[in-house]
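User: Serine hydrolase domain-containing protein, Flavobacterium myungsuense:
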Amino acid sequence: MIKSFTLFILLSLSISSCSNIDDTNQSVPTESMYFPTTSSSWETKSLSSLGWNESAVQPLKDFLIDKNTKSFIILVNGRIVMEDYFNGHTATDTWEWNSAGKTLVATTTGIAEQEGLLSINNKASDYLGTAWTNMPLAKENLITVRNLLTMTSGIDDAKQLIVKPNLTYIADAGTRWAYGNVFQKLTDVVADASGKPFETYFNEKLKNKIGMDGFWNFGTIFTIYQSTTRSMSRFGLLALNKGKWNNEQIINEIFFNESTATSQNINPSYGYLWWLNGKTKYMIPSEQTVYPGSLVPNAPADMYAAMGASDQRIYVVPSKKMVIVRMGDAANPKDPYFAVSGFDNALWEKINAVIN
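Assistant: Predicted structure for Serine hydrolase domain-containing protein:
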């Protein structure tokens, strides 16, 4: 009798360890997270196995084509469910991330901190040198590395060319949120702290570890990463797993959680260069207006996103174990610049028709 009871307990534990219970109290197999190797092979998963609405796929693709999309990928648990290329773009072609690449800079900064090379609570001038701005020294000394990560440096955002004469005072650091290119100084912070060119450090600590391709274009107006769509998806998969790639924690989970949580109380929809959905209000680039509601109402509330000009996107949705990547030209050529646009809500309406 004791042996039978023990066997029953062991069987119950075994079943519970490989299953979850869904909302209908049915047992659902737990699928492992998949991480692609550095080769071109990548596991796939069918839409039918997920119970998705296949009749809504073509309307989604038609929308993507109409909105000047070059590539589109959906991952679930790391596996490719959809992968499409349009308008002559191919899987081996590279494209600019634009401001979506800010998240790469934030992650690399966090890696440098976990290695003890810098502290984001230190003054930026500890790494950039005194008088790196055109501000009074007392005001410059208020700017920390964290302020650069959160868009709260207090530097006037009217001029996006990052040269010293343009880095002028408009508010005390931490008192004003303004989206601008001064985040680029973080690449100099990491370079100074690590003693290596930023791209060298980035390649060693992030790019090569997760098998990305691509390269940086550094400029005084824009610092932009360019890669294939699958490489953008790899970074999204790292983000879905809170900085962990397979069995290696590339960026510590504490820093990553901070990156994808409200970083200041002025714009709660912004973390460390990540955009956050599901908050009560948000701000957008080039404005000081505070808008009520969620950043992308049609998207899941727990989504965080890397967003770049011309609608470059990495959407990460932990509740659905999902990563979605879109690259291409601006969905609306009349409004190509801003990182945040109405395109997101329209796209998510189409995505929801497929996945729900």
